[in-house]
Amino acid sequence: MDQQQEHVISMIEDNHIKFIRLWFTDVSGTLKSVAIPPAEVEGAFTQGIGFDGSAVEGLSRIHEADMVIKPDASTFHILPWDESGEKCARMFCDIHTPDDQPARSDPRGVLRRAIDRAAKLGFTFHVHPEVEFYLFQHEQDPNGEPVPIDHGSYFDHVSRPLAQSFRAQAIHELEQLGIPVEFSHHEAGPGQNEIDLRVADSLTMADNLMSLRAVVEHVAITQGVEASFMPKPLIHHPGNGLHIHMSLFEGNTNAFYDPLREYQLSETGAKFVAGILHHSREISAITNQHVNSYKRLWAGDEAPAYIAWGKTNRSALVRVPTFSAKEGHSARIEYRALDSAANPYLAFAVILNAGLSGIENDYEVPESVDTNINALSDQERHIMGIGELPSSLHSAITLARESELVATTLGEDAFDFFLRNKEREWYEYRQQITDFERRLYY
């Protein structure tokens, strides 16, 4: 065992931890876990814990079922809540094959491979997310619609204390897990909230986002409400975006900063933007993985449906936030299509590889757009060369199936499962008869 693993074992003994939850994520982005007692931790570090990978979405085929999870000691934290009165901790895990090779279908491994590609070019990838979610009452209205906990709007200090209390408890639990929060506030929709996490490297941030979902769901249970990361839970109100601010660093130097260029965005940053725009349609099935995702993208409310970029333009797919010359280290771009239901490991991986392709292949960045793209006519957008994102999961799947970038990023097994999983979702969705159809045609 290495020094960090020995430190974890000491922490478990000193804090009288009764169970350690080993967390990992399936290809669809669902958090999985297995609990082990302290006596099994050393063996988990050295040999791993075997399990049936074929029983977990997309991890292995039936004839290759045996898989091994190995905990990452750097992710050890004591959970801020007890389970059945016992103190517990958690660690994220990497998935391996029985011969101790990284599993190609492990979402965490997918992101690691993209990070390695960036490292070979001299870059580290940093991410700062804005996470949106809704809070609903347990009861639905007479029409079966979810009922938000309040009628607040953007930055409202709502009169009912539940939203503030919810965010305060969630932030407290996140910080106990070692996850620093930049700020939180009420979002534009009734009962909609946002928590922004402080910037971190992309692998740490993907782990942090999975932890945030677990924390929000736990706080919802304790406060008697329901939390939803569904991309578009309400027809007439904004969806749940996962806007991510991104930058590449070369050592301690922000590779996106150049005070002499337009928007103070370096050539590297501009090429990264060009890569994202170039590949945005084919990666949409990963960044927006559900049929419901496209109802958010095409509903307006500042969700981007068109492929363009601009400075502080919130209708654009990619924007360059304002920062001062004294804050060159904070130079970044913001990708606005991602929604809160995405698998963060896979999403970060395809976005990073799309941007790196722009740098490696010297893509030319198109003209920036500083007007409200949603307000333009189809003809105006056509003249300006502004394309559009897929309008349905079916269209996104078709584009992803033909994408070399997506196939290479995910690897054969994860790519094959992901497409089959999404095709099944689309098929099942097509079979539904909705209230809208009955109202219109019955």
From TrEMBL:
It comes from the Bacteria. Mg(2+) binds at residues 130, 132, 187, 194, 243, 334. ATP binds at residues 182, 245-247, 314. GO terms for molecular function: ATP binding; glutamine synthetase activity; metal ion binding. Gene3D superfamilies: Glutamine synthetase, N-terminal domain, Glutamine synthetase/guanido kinase, catalytic domain. L-glutamate binds at residues 296, 302, 314, 336. Residues 107-442 form the GS catalytic domain. InterPro entries: Gln_synt_N (IPR008147), Gln_synt_N_sf (IPR036651), Gln_synth/guanido_kin_cat_dom (IPR014746), Gln_synth_cat_dom (IPR008146), Gln_synth_gly_rich_site (IPR027303), Gln_synth_I (IPR004809). Keywords: ATP-binding, Ligase, Magnesium, Metal-binding, Nucleotide-binding. Residues 15-100 form the GS beta-grasp domain. Binds 2 Mg(2+) ions per subunit. Its cofactor is Mg(2+). GO terms for biological process: glutamine biosynthetic process. PANTHER family: GAMMA-GLUTAMYLPOLYAMINE SYNTHETASE GLNA2, GAMMA-GLUTAMYLPUTRESCINE SYNTHETASE. Belongs to the glutamine synthetase family. This is L-glutamine synthetase. It comes from Arcanobacterium phocae.
